[in-house]
Design goal:
six-stranded antiparallel sheet; 14 strands; 365 residues; globular; six-stranded mixed sheet; Aminopeptidase; 2 domains; Alpha-Beta Plaits; alpha/beta; single chain
Length: 365
């Protein structure tokens, strides 16, 4: 009997220690840029300051309202933090989520484009996603040993981004779900223009080992939006939107008894490589067993209705699913010269349109 009681006590103690040692739900908040890396700047507005203000406001909201969540910052003041170090902080903490906060900008001095967008790791070939990736990855050039640390990666070389199209991200589903929730609340809570969920070859997400996103809060070279981004009210609203999305994600996470996994209601997500991505066709006359070229013009987190206004009159359209995203194409040709003519027309409506290649109904390029 004594042996039994001793064994029972030992089991109880072991369980108590196991529970006490459970990894808390940890969110790493990464305020993009900092110190000698100012990020985008237009006049008196500096991206690094906006990012930090929103990051600190977000962390305060989480710490005040979500008592079971641990918050870790990659920086809490105006200091330079190497991109690789940001990922190391998250990995060392065994974080549950990683969210990197940034503000957008184009090469033009002043623009009218506005709104928030959220990026997950991926190999989107569009000009817009590529420019965002180049802008955010260029920070590594400020690091003395960047050639060694990033294995020769050149943030200015388009060829360096090809590898992202070949990667399979095991956290794609969770990252996509988080991105969807954030975008929804950027629109509902902060009343921002919804620029959608997108993919890009972002090094800071590539090097983290947990679900993660990079948010672009708005355009710092849009004079009106820049004022909003730099205002206390605007920063609080943006932090509130991110907090609201994170809270919903955490609630979904807590409802799962055995690990968190997410499949969009509109379609089953395939986590295969691009060469074996699942294809969903709204309408296409293409046949298999041949090389086929299409013009990709739009990426969405869900399947859109056939008469969606987002197609800007293009019809019929096709789509395929890759990395949890629905990618829309227009036209079909077996001749590269013919599809170039189609691309030229599509680019009058979608300036970032580009040609994709299929074989036997599967995308190969």
């Amino acid at each position: 009997m004594k042996k039994f009681l001793f064994l029972l006590f030992s089991l109880w103690l072991a369980c108590g220690l196991a529970i006490a040692g459970e990894q808390p739900f940890t969110i790493v908040i990464d305020a993009g840029h900092g110190g000698k890396d100012g990020g985008a700047a237009r006049g008196r507005y500096e991206e690094k300051n906006i990012n930090l203000a929103v990051a600190l406001a977000l962390g305060e909201m989480i710490e005040k309202n979500l008592k079971d969540v641990k918050v870790i910052y990659t920086r809490k003041k105006d200091v330079f933090v190497a991109l690789s170090k940001r990922a190391q902080i998250a990995n060392k903490a065994k974080a549950s989520l990683f969210i990197s906060i940034h503000a957008n900008a184009t090469k033009k001095t002043s623009i009218t484009a506005s709104g928030a967008e959220t990026y997950i790791l991926g190999g989107d070939d569009s000009d817009e996603s590529l420019e965002v990736a180049k802008k955010e990855n260029s920070v590594i050039l400020l690091e003395d040993d960047h050639t060694t640390t990033y294995e020769g990666f050149d943030p200015e070389s388009t060829e360096s981004y090809i590898l992202f199209g070949l990667m399979t991200n095991i956290h794609m589903k969770q990252s996509l779900r988080l991105a969807e929730l954030l975008q929804s609340d950027f629109k509902k809570v902060a009343k921002r223009n919804d620029r959608g969920v997108k993919q890009a070859g972002l090094l800071v997400l590539r090097r983290t080992s947990m679900p993660g996103v990079l948010v672009e809060l708005g355009y710092i070279n849009n004079p009106q939006e820049a004022k909003f981004l730099n205002s206390k009210q605007g920063q609080q609203l943006l932090a509130s939107a991110i907090y609201s999305g994170l809270k919903k994600y955490k609630e979904e996470y807590d409802r799962k008894d055995s690990g968190f996994s997410y499949t969009p209601s509109s379609a089953k997500v395939s986590e295969t490589s691009p060469s074996s991505a699942s294809i969903g066709v709204a309408r296409t006359d293409a046949t298999s067993a041949r090389i086929e070229y299409r013009v990709q013009f739009l990426t969405s987190s869900k399947v859109l209705p056939d008469n969606s206004r987002q197609f800007k009159g293009l019809s019929p359209v096709s789509y395929y699913k890759e990395g949890g995203m629905v990618k829309y194409t227009y036209g079909s040709a077996t001749n590269p010269e013919e599809i170039e003519k189609t691309k030229k027309m599509v680019k009058t409506k979608f300036k970032d349109a580009f040609v994709v290649t299929f074989k036997d109904g599967l995308r190969i390029k």
